[in-house]
Amino acid sequence: MEIKLNGLKETEEFGMKLGNLLKTGDILCLNGDLGAGKTTLTKSIGLGLGVTDYITSPTFALINEYTGRIPVYHFDVYRLENVDELYDLGFDEYFYGNGISIIEWAEKIEKLLPKERIVLNIEKGKDIDERRIIITGYGNRYVEITKELEKN
């Protein structure tokens, strides 16, 4: 599935719509170049999940936790030097816990990701505000979410 977004408003609307569809245990993998909009999209997804705290990129902390209608675990593994750092954080308790995991730069930890996941590859467009999101994934939740996104 491919989504084209033009500007912050469309990104926010898409993120909120996606956030409203998410359920406990969902894993979102966000990939894209620096400045592609991974954190911006995460903020919008958080709004759809009822997060009222300001969402920032956990680049140096690796993970930030937020409270919404479902707990949100926001990972940024860009600066991850080795996967042992994730083991030290107990990543599997987050991935298989009672919240939603959103992982920026997820391609860096491909081997550790659960089989069932939703992958959003974000690409910059020709215009500074354009984004193209290619959604792929594995499992029932991927199928359910793409069907819901296609409805509108």
UniProtKB/TrEMBL annotation:
Cellular compartments annotated: Cytoplasm
An example molecular function term from Gene Ontology annotations: metal ion binding
One Gene Ontology CC term in the entry: cytoplasm
UniProt keyword Transferase, yes or no: yes
Gene Ontology terms: biological process: tRNA threonylcarbamoyladenosine modification
InterPro entries: P-loop_NTPase, T6A_TsaE
Keyword Oxidoreductase on entry: no
Chief location: cytoplasm
Alphabetic keyword roster: ATP-binding, Cytoplasm, Magnesium, Metal-binding, Nucleotide-binding, Transferase, tRNA processing
Entry similarity comment: Belongs to the TsaE family.
NCBIfam families the UniProt entry points to: T6A_YjeE
Protein name per its UniProtKB record: tRNA threonylcarbamoyladenosine biosynthesis protein TsaE
Species classification: Bacteria, Bacillati, Bacillota, Tissierellia, Tissierellales
